[in-house]
Amino acid sequence: MPAYDLVVIGSDEVWNFSHPWYGGQPLFFGRGLNAPRVVSYAASFGNHDAATGMDPAWADQLARLDAISVRDANSHRLVQQALGRQVPLVLDPCLQFPPAVESADTSAGPAYAVLYGHGFSDRFGALVRAWADRRGLELVSLGYRNDFAHRQWLDADPLDFARAMAGATAVVTNFFHGCVFALLNGKPFVCAGTPYRMNKVRDLTRTLLAGDHLLTEVADPAALDILLDRPLDPAINRAIAALRRQSETYLPSIPV
């Protein structure tokens, strides 16, 4: 590969050993990179839980990096256990460096809520559809087919996605970046926790004081209604701003 002054590894699940496509790729641990400085930004081990630990060979590769930052508490614990040192917790780039997009033009169409993800339980889907019907909202499924939605927008590109999130009344998701874009745009949201993404969505919502938006079991439809109907707690924006300031100090601190 060409020579670079600095290579940044990340973000997202670059260190997830069980990732279906990229798990255990040496490149993501700094092997074969032609640069005198190699660092990570907002890296994650995904659903590889800290209780499982890390093979010493991978820990040795991480120890060679010039600087490490992670995006979630689970990844923070893994690095601390493996290397015996604290590393910075930083924001996902979409929250740290918000894309400049305009909301979708909703003047010619009905108000809508965004549905982003797949594999929702039948019960959860029925609750969400009932909520949307009671509010007179079109439930739009972005990128994935969900039969309980009013409309499937399967070919939405990244700009379509960002605009749709910005113009939505509320967001329903079970994906990490569904939460991120709801938070970025200050939208009421709920996240249905799933085992694969639980580490990331749990730690994101807890860190940003939005833990009640993560639903592992919807026992009372009223709980979902409240979360999707009310504005986000102002404390969430304050938590984002504080972590954004902390994240801003990380990359400039790396010597090149």
Itemize the secondary structure elements and their pairings.
Blueprint: E1 6-9, E2 37-40, H1 56-63, H2 73-83, H3 93-96, E3 112-116, H4 122-135, E4 138-142, E5 151-153, H5 158-167, E6 171-173, H6 176-184, E7 189-192, H7 198-207, E8 214-215, H8 221-229, H9 234-248
Can I get a quick summary?
The chain has a 6-stranded parallel β-sheet, with helices on both faces. A two-stranded parallel sheet has the order 1-2.
Primary descriptors:
256 residues, 6-stranded parallel sheet, alpha/beta, elongated
What does this structure look like?
The protein is 35% helix and 12% strand. It has nine helices and eight strands. Strands 5-4-3-6-7-8 form a six-stranded parallel β-sheet, sandwiched between helices. The protein is elongated.
Main sheet? 6 strands, parallel
User: Which blocks of ≥5 consecutive residues have pLDDT under 50?
Assistant: none
Mean pLDDT: 91
Helix content: 25-40%
SSE arrangement, N to C: EEHHHEHEEHEHEHEHH
Rounded to an integer, what's the Rg over CA atoms? 19 Å
- Principal-axis shape equals elongated
Count up the helices. 9
**Helix/strand/pairing category:** alpha/beta
Distance between the termini: 19 Å
Q: Taking strands numbered 1, 2, ... along the chain, how are they ordered across the largest sheet?
A: 5-4-3-6-7-8
Question: What percentage of the residues does DSSP assign to strands (E)?
Answer: 5-15%
